[in-house]
UniProtKB/TrEMBL annotation:
Identification of the protein by name: Anthranilate phosphoribosyltransferase
KW Ribonucleoprotein (keyword) present: no
Signal sequence extent: none
The organism of origin for this protein: Sporosarcina koreensis
Keywords: Amino-acid biosynthesis, Aromatic amino acid biosynthesis, Glycosyltransferase, Magnesium, Metal-binding, Transferase, Tryptophan biosynthesis
Keyword Magnesium: yes
Superkingdom, taxonomy of origin: Bacteria
Length: 343
């Protein structure tokens, strides 16, 4: 590990194989806490490359819990987080809309880190617990077409690395790799990062990891979601091609709204917001969700255009399909909870 730290401190980017070896040392506990911290800090100061992110994501996925799932065109719409916007849980809400529109959604998630309510915090408030085994998550995905993969269960070897990240107290390369380490084989992905300067590199990481089609967004105002508050930057990765573009809400028939209109609160408050959106209450929160769910449908290939995706997302809500999907997952969670008690 010290050798790789020295190379990085000299300003040289690590080749794929070098980063792969360094990452395995992180996960196999072959380095001390101090050595791990020095390596991650050095990477951050140098600036991470797409190759380094892809190699780490590949190694982290190889150390995750394996899933037995049938072949399907799965999508994850998890973002990197860390944008500091304190928005309500947009991607979690969008996941129900996507599933209601027929997409197979395998969504990564965790508890709050920088936000007031992380995805699992709001899922708890909705009645969806985190005590699922990997087999339970696989069943949920097969029976309901959607599953929430709780990161600490999926990535048990992250515990020690988490201690190092807490010790550093600043963003590291692990802030970028979370959405890239889904153990379910993904053909498609829609993800947001709050670094507009890195979206092309992030899309190229998706290509290295074997995604067939993926869409990366860095939202207006620093959001790691598509935003109504201005111009959003995108890169579409489609069969190896990287296509950058930009658009705002008005370009797709939606209205401008400042970020203050989608601010969230406690898990309970955010759960109430999710219910209001899925019940069809119009406004900036509704528009933000159909914008992002529409982009997810476009990324998955269900919709031929972003505009068509937004229309399908809107129909998923107004038809009641998205709300029924939430209710079905809550019922599944309750059933599994009863099985846990019975055990």
């Amino acid at each position: 590990m010290k050798n790789y730290t020295r190379i990085v401190e000299e300003g040289r980017n690590l080749r794929y194989k070098e980063m792969e070896e360094a990452a395995n040392q992180l996960f196999l506990e072959e380095a001390t806490i101090e050595e791990m911290g020095a390596f991650l800090v050095a990477l951050s100061k140098k600036g991470e490359t797409a190759t380094e992110v892809a190699a780490l994501a590949s190694v982290m996925t190889s150390h995750s819990i394996k899933f037995d799932v049938p072949a399907a065109r799965y999508l994850d719409n998890c973002g990197t987080g860390g944008d500091g916007s304190n928005s309500f849980n947009i991607s979690t809400t969008s996941a129900f809309v996507l599933a209601g529109a027929g997409v197979n959604v395998a969504k990564h998630g965790n508890r709050k880190i920088t936000s007031a309510a992380g995805s699992q915090d709001v899922l708890d408030a909705l009645g969806i617990h985190s005590r699922f085994t990997p087999d339970d998550m696989s069943r949920m995905l097969q029976e309901e077409g959607i599953a929430f993969l709780f990161a600490p269960i999926i990535h048990p070897k992250m515990k020690r690395i988490g201690e190092v990240r807490a010790m550093i107290g600043k963003p590291t390369i692990f802030n970028l790799v979370g959405p890239l380490t889904n153990p379910v084989p993904l053909e498609t992905q829609f993800t947001g990062i709050n670094r507009p300067d890195f979206i092309m590199e992030y899309a190229s990481v998706m290509r290295m990891l074997g995604r067939e089609r993926a869409l990366v967004v860095s939202g207006a105002g620093g959001l790691d979601e598509a935003s109504l508050a201005g111009q959003n930057s995108f890169v579409l990765m489609d069969k190896g091609d990287l296509i950058p573009f930009a658009l705002n809400a008005e370009d797709v028939g939606l209205s401008y709204a400042p970020l203050s209109e989608i601010r969230g609160g406690t898990p309970k408050e955010n759960a109430a917001m999710i219910h209001s959106v899925l019940q069809g209450e119009r406004g900036p929160r509704f528009d933000t969700v159909v914008f992002n769910a529409g982009l997810g449908l476009f990324a998955n290939g269900v919709a031929d255009s972003i505009q068509e995706g937004i229309e399908q997302a809107t129909d998923s809500i107004l038809s009641g399909n998205a709300l029924r999907k939430l209710e079905a997952v809550v019922a599944f969670s309750e059933h599994i909870g009863q099985e846990v008690v019975a055990r």
